[in-house]
Design goal:
The complex is a heterotrimer.
Chain A (H helix, E strand, L loop, with lengths): L7 H10 L30 H13 L6 E2 L13 H6 L2 H4 L11 H18 L3 E2 L6 H16 L3 E5 L4 H12 L5 E4 L9 H7 L4 E7 L10 H10 L3 E6 L16 E5 L15 E5 L12 E5 L5 E5 L6 H4 L12 H38 L3 E3 L8 E5 L4 H9 L3 E2 L2 E2 L10 E5 L6 H16 L14
Parallel strand pairs in A: 1-13, 3-4, 3-5, 5-6, 6-7
Antiparallel strand pairs in A: 2-8, 7-8, 9-10, 11-12, 12-15, 14-15
Helix pairs in contact in A: 5-11, 6-7, 11-13
Chain B lengths: L41 H5 L15 H12 L22 H7 L2 H4 L11 H18 L3 E3 L5 H18 L6 E5 L5 H8 L3 E5 L9 H7 L4 E7 L11 H10 L3 E5 L19 E3 L20 E3 L11 E4 L5 E4 L16 H37 L15 E4 L1 H4 L5 H10 L6 E2 L8 E4 L7 H20 L1 H5 L12 H6 L11
Parallel strand pairs in B: 2-3, 2-4, 4-5, 5-6
Antiparallel strand pairs in B: 1-7, 6-7, 8-9, 10-12, 11-12
Helix pairs in contact in B: 3-10, 5-10, 6-7, 10-13
Chain C lengths: L7 E2 L4 E6 L2 E6 L1 H7 L2 E5 L6 E2 L4 E7 L3 E5 L4 E6 L2 H4 L2 H5 L7 E5 L11 H13 L1
Antiparallel strand pairs in C: 1-2, 2-3, 3-9, 4-6, 5-8, 6-7, 8-9
Classes of the chains: A alpha/beta, B alpha/beta, C alpha+beta.
Chain lengths: 458, 497, 129
Amino acid sequence: MRYLPKSPADREAMLKALGKRSISEFFTPIPAKYRLERDLKIPRQMAESEIVDWFRERSRENGDGYAIFLGAGAYYHYRPVIIDSLILRGEFLTAYTPYQAEVSQGTLQSIFEFQTMICELTGMEVANASMYDGSTATAEAVMMAVRLTGRPSVLVARNVHPEYQEVLSTYAHHQGLPISTLSFTEAGRLDPEDLERSITGETACVLIQSPNFFGTIEDVAAIAEIAHKHGALLVVAIAEAISLGMVKPPQQADIIALEAQSFGVPLGFGGPYCGVIATREQFVRQMPGRLVGQTTDRNGKRGFVLTLATREQHIRREKATSNICTNQALIALMANIFMTVYGKVGLRDLAKQNLAKTAYAMDQFGKHAGLLFTGAPRFNEFVVKTSEDPGAINSRILGHKIVGGLPLKKFYPELGNASLWCCTEMTTRTAIDTAAAMVAESEGSSGARDVDVEELTR
Amino acid sequence: MKHMTRKATRHVSQNEGLIFEKSSPGKAAWKLPPLDVPEIDASKLLGSAERKDLGNMPEVSEIEIIRHFTRLSTWNYAIDLGMYPLGSCTMKYNPRVNEVVARLEGLANGHPYQPERASQGALRILKTLSECLLEITGMDAITLQPAAGAHGELTGLLMVRAYQESKGTPRKKILIPDSAHGTNPATAAMVGYAVENLKSNSQGMVDIAALSGQMNQDVAALMLTNPNTLGIFEQEIEQIAAILHAKGGLLYMDGANMNALVGKVRPGDFGVDLMHLNLHKTFSTPHGGGGPGSGPVAVKNILGPFLPKPVLITKPDGTLGFEYDRPQSVGRVRAFYGNFGMFVRALAYILANGPDGLRQTTEDAVLNANYIRKGLEGAYDLPYSTPTMHEVVFSDRRQAKKRVKTMDIAKRLIDYGFHPYTTAFPLIVPGALMIEATESESKEELDLFIESMRSIAEEVEEDPQTVLTAPHSTRISRLDETTAARKPVLRWKPAAE
Amino acid sequence: MSYPTDFKYTKEHEWIKGDGKVATIGITHYAQDSLGDIVFVELPKTGTQITKGKTFGSVESVKAVSDLYAPASGVVTDVNAELANSPEKVNKDPHGSWMIKINLQDPNELNSLLSAADYEKFINEETAH
């Protein structure tokens, strides 16, 4: 086996040194009846070239080379090549969690820079070293708000990513935490009147997303005012991190749960991504996840360490803020490099291209089909309403090697034939024109078509 | 210093400040293509939501970024540099072909919501990996959704709870041995269970009498790491399972130490009802400085209905897809389907090994641990003499007489060119030195490690001060963690003008 | 380090000084010494009811957390706010750095606690193990 660095003679010598005749003697603590005396029924050992071929085949079966109009929590942005050349360095790739600070300064300093940039972008005072993804960061942010307020219930806007809502309800279920949802207005924003009606002295926090699942930017200041008036905290989820280049950060929030996938992390069929929690300094001891802090060594030299570890499971065990241990360090490094590449000016210009492509696409689609939730500003996603089932339209668009928008019926049945479209800097005008023409064709024709409806909704 | 190492020598590494300290206006590492659609007026589109300034974000050039991160990287220890003997962390070689296949265009750029018919390649990877993991564990059904080991534990205990509820009551407690990882009790608490400690016996295994005494109708499950954190296989596993099952409890196995078992014994065969795996340990996906991980949970049929949704299925037409209509499911534990990129890597590892390679891997891992045990017995105190599987735990009892603690020895090991072992864990061994070599170490590397550890033991006797003040060869010496925690500085700020 | 004789002590290493209905609570020299550098003290808010034998807060060092157990029951009337920013004071002067003051529910509860001499005997046995 090519990964194993021993010759038969080495094994022989080691066994001899240990006074054993065969390796099987080490497995005698396992009751004999359970010992596996056969080969595992898995594929045979493959050569490297065979492995590459096998995965190439899978890659080809996986929509390789399509233009994508899907967003909805996973965004297709350009990844500068230096991200991979740097993270593939063995010193980053094959290092463990930096508990031993003296031989982990590379990882530690880069996390410290990551925390700093997340603070700069979100307007928060502290940020952690990462969470699994945006959905779990959101659930953990809500749990954190519950601990901070000591209150038992949670209000969640219905226009928060539906899968984030599902994860939250899984996490909250056994904490005895009632969750109520808040409706949205015709502009696609959280309905402030519903919030006023629903919030009570028992509400730990209000959870919103901005830009929300429909791409609309929420009026965070107004929502924060209502939440704070009732002593509740405001938790804001951000799924599209590039929006921070152009859209004011939700500074009035108490806790921000960010999905940093847009910062240089491949779509990768849904993961690994990079969640982050950012908050105010006063709340840091209730924040889950690892934190890196700056300090000095015995000679007064600047260095970095994992700090405030007493919040974590390996010390506080059942009283920890969360059970999280392994996080997404290497993915956070991707995001870190991405943020460094684009920086203060580039991130804004990049966001602006997203905004421009989206504005153009909305113009094109709007000529032929209905656009929903147009009464508020939005970033790079928009909702199209068609007469025909969007799954059927997508099916035809797919023939042009274009993946159309996400049909919303499954999550929001009341929206009917609505679908969520996303444009990034990667979306070409040609793709937009082609997709818009297909939508126009559908709207122009009368009656339903007899087509094989692609099962897009899940 | 008398005791010098054959493995390491000093080398020059570059100084490097924070990236913010290199920033100056006008430098850039990016270039966007010309816009192919009309320019927009952002303030018109966004109104008061428009952001005008990005604060202290850096402005640097590409070469500076390359040098910055390359310099930082040289300050890290890594598996690629040498043995990383962290017990229970399974720091094995991370094969490079894994990284190549995970970056294939169709896999790296697959959108989680793209149509199933355009996702068959990704789904086939999920299916093949699932089948391999089920065969390796001897279980019946699996979810790949959890993003790490602790997340797998959470998922597993949610399923325990749902199962027990379906039998009438969720029950109240989870039994956890005193040798367990901290994630176990933390997870039980998250799922609303009380934690009850289970004492180990003098051999470092579950005390069967104690288990019988503590097992009752209030206990939902036992969370057992096997081999446990002492590297000891729970020899009375049959009885452990029987005691739990007799009173309706479930046996949950923390698969953190699965590297000792693959191809040699299957948890599903010895009575485990559900377990999580750590793809970043046993199945070679890189630790990356602390993640990403991946923590699939494999279960017996009785727990199948409670798996998180969606569940991967084969449709009548033979294509693969997801099933969302799962009324008894515990729900979702993560958006989308899990850390897919890690599935690709883990499967590439399994394919590179095959059944013979995986078995040899396990055998070599166990051989290495026993070789280290033999090499260090006599120099360090071995609190449990029960046979060792994939890792071995010593204590600093002898060295403590010279006021040298496990952490000091670990720090001195850095000077000898190794990463420290796991210190002060498991909690049942005061001053623990927990060592796991994995299969990736050659005899030569193991001999160097043993020689280094023995040399440090001598230093403790002759010159404890050198050990107490180690490391001496690193860029920085031991850091002031107290000030870091008392007055946390968690981000850079520009110097006040 | 001597243990003041006008204090009472618990086996969990808290001290309490009663003065009529009011009592002052902190942790002992032995406690701070075994914890090492204290980095954070978590205390209840004024008005909180605490119960003898139950936890009312915690002290943290870099790598350990210890719960604080109430030596007696009562309502918290005052909290030493200084410790929030200067937890090191507990290390420097454990018997002078009080943590909370309470209104005793039953001043007689103090009678069952250890005297300075008994406590010193107790910790000597502890360290002998």
